Write the structure tokens for this entry.
Amino acid sequence: MIAILQRVSQASVRVDDQVIGQIGAGLLVLLCAEKGDTDAVADKMLAKMLKLRIFSDDAGKMNRSVQDVGGGLLVVSQFTLAADVAGGNRPSFTQAAAPDEGRRLYDHFVTQARAQHPVVQTGRFAADMQVSLINDGPITIPMRMNA
């Protein structure tokens, strides 16, 4: 499983010109399930993400997690994170999970996030989405979890 975490002061996602998810300060999570990923991999990634100390403390050091600061999560599915550009000029997405499995793992991740964190918003799986954000820092963290 691959994720890109962006610490944001605000973020939103639109589908058909309607805002379907938005948060204030917190994390925009771009999430991609890969072939072979399991619920356990998704759970491991979520646990790490919620505890990752990338928010500033009173001294300006990155010592606080999204849970510590009460920030929101905006979770957006993005299979293109599995892009392989080693070949020609067209990316290959063969390592991305099949759509049905990708949706299942995305839904599992979101369900677990909502059970463990008070503010969780989402995009819409497989939709054409427009994502807006103000990256705070900027802080952008790539994550990859394997079984």
The first strand starts at residue 2 and ends at 15. The chain has a mean pLDDT of 97. The first helix runs from residue 39 to 51. Residues 73 and 114 are 9 Å apart (CA to CA).
